[in-house]
Design goal:
Radius of gyration: 16 Å
Helix content: over 70%
Number of helices: 2
Structural class: mainly alpha
Distance between the termini: 17 Å
Number of domains: 1
Oligomer: single chain
Order of helices and strands: HH
Length: 70
């Protein structure tokens, strides 16, 4: 698995900034306002974020192997 640079950069932004912020936002508001299934939603977002991070890590390793950057 190897992403193109543009795809990698977009996914990295989503993984490092957007999804953690969304999980924190929903978790905080859920506790304050009593949103339903707050824990399940936050855990789902976090699990998806971890999956994307793992895919980015694999892509990075493959990129480095191909370009001799190990």
């Amino acid at each position: 698995m190897k992403f193109k640079n543009k795809t990698y950069d977009k996914l990295k932004t989503i993984c490092l900034i957007i999804l953690p912020a969304l999980a924190t936002f929903y978790g905080s508001l859920g506790q304050i306002w009593g949103f339903p299934m707050t824990e399940q939603v936050v855990l789902t977002i976090t699990a998806f974020d971890t999956f994307i991070g793992a895919c980015l890590g694999i892509s990075n390793i493959n990129y480095k192997k191909e370009n001799g950057d190990e």
